[in-house]
Amino acid sequence: MQEDQSIRLAPAAPRTDSFSRRVFHAAAKYRGPVELGWYDFITLFRRSFLGPLWATTQMALWIATITLILHERLGDGIGNYAVYVGLGFFAWDFISWSLGEGPNHLFSKGTLLKNIPVDISAVTIRRISFLFFRSVFQLPVPVFILIFFGEPLTWNALIILPVAVIFLINSFSCLTICGVLGVYIRDFEFIIPTMTRFLFFTTPIFWQGDRGVRRVISDYNPFSYFIEMVRAPLSGSAPSALAWTVVGVITVVSFLTALWLQSRFRSQIIYRI
Amino acid sequence: MNYIRLQNVDLDLPVGRQAFSGFFKPVQKKRTDERVDTSKGPGYVHALRDVTLDIKAGDRVGLIGVNGAGKSTLLRVLAGIYAPTKGRYEANGRISTLFVSGVGMNQNASGRENIFLCSRTLGMSRAEIRAIEQGIVDFAEIGDFIDLPIRTYSAGMKTRLGFAVATAIRPEILLIDEVFGVGDSAFRLRANERIQKVVGQAGILVLATHADATITNFCDLVCWMDKGEVRYFGPAEEGIEAYREATHGAPTKSR
Q1: Residue B112, min C-alpha distance to chain A (Å)
Q2: Does the global pTM surpass 0.80?
Q3: DSSP E strands: which ranges in B79-144?
Q4: First-to-last CA distance in chain A?
Q5: Distance (Å, whole) CA A97 – CA A251
Q6: Interchain CB distance below 8 Å, A5 and B169
Q7: For residue A139, with 0-12 CB atoms within 10 Å meaning exposed, 13-18 middle and 19 or more buried, which class applies?
């Protein structure tokens, strides 16, 4: 009956296309997953009163609580400490969710992957999109803190844009690596939450790695540098060369590892889910 | 031209680790079903063995066989979801699958939103979705429920919606796994019509079912699966006959 209303899909990108056309096709292909991620995010709260504002509320409560309880110990004034914790916690939350979602994100989409021929990368992009929109809703909290307590922004603040891209790329690597490992080694489902809790306390989020044991812990924890990448530009300075190096190397190595894992194990993942 | 070709396809499904399962030692050490291979580690299930199929444009294939014969697994291989452990798989044509109802649906989203979500998952653009949306709503006959969250739907309504979406994209290869059981008889009739129309002349239909009537309605070929192997692949009439004789002992009326 709906013969005239049913349509034929556009053919996939031919392999002989120019690079720019291929990029365009890939972008068009991933627009769907990005929108689906947005839907995953908003429908999560559909039956609640506050809706997606719960993401904002949770973040505000965490930061307010940590600031109120711990600001005196640092003796740096409640405003400065709020900025320090606010930015640190905002960045950490994205990292910890990327890690935490990893081992299960392919499993949770198991029905989809097993019944419709979709790409694993499309499922991963969908999850990153979910995490991205979650962060967008959390963003008002650090912005509010910066407006009220922060130093005036300098041009260095613009560094936050490439940093955001770096965070998204790392989220892809993280979800893919943890996702593939999680399919093979189910222990990851339990290892990762334990590890992120441990990392929350060993990363300078609510304490400063200025001296002694703290200094050692923060210097040798790669996540410190990721946090610094967010904190520094918004506090008026540029991230240190060391931070750029550590974050750069991790980003490149993990991204290549993720791509390799995805192509190497693509076919074997599905029937292990 | 549309086609699916399988050449000597083997598929081993890994069982995966089973920690602390040693509390219950297996009573029977010797396995009698050769598909279950526990000789090394947690082992494998040899789900498909040496499957060779050549499905050409215009073929309508009915997949038959007892439970656990490998029908659904074979469908997943045909769809390109499971990669064969051994052998070759080749397919040409846009594939649509109807394996489980409600795939890609979000319980808290409305029917209309779910049309969007499912179609987007299948790779349609916004414009394409807009073009087919009303058709899907009409075909699924969901009425005013379309703007309610689908957790309020009956199982049949969800299946109808999923069916309408999956067939709206006009696949060239349609793979179906026994979704006919759900839905009332009126809808089943319309679904039949829609499948005939959607698959058209050059399309391929592969349908796994236990109902002989469905096979006689739709299929000109039958593929009889038995313990992961193809026991028969050829004209439908003879295939059903042979299958019935083997399973029931004597020819019976269709169920």
Answers
A1: 13
A2: yes
A3: 86-92, 95-98
A4: 38
A5: 17
A6: no
A7: middle
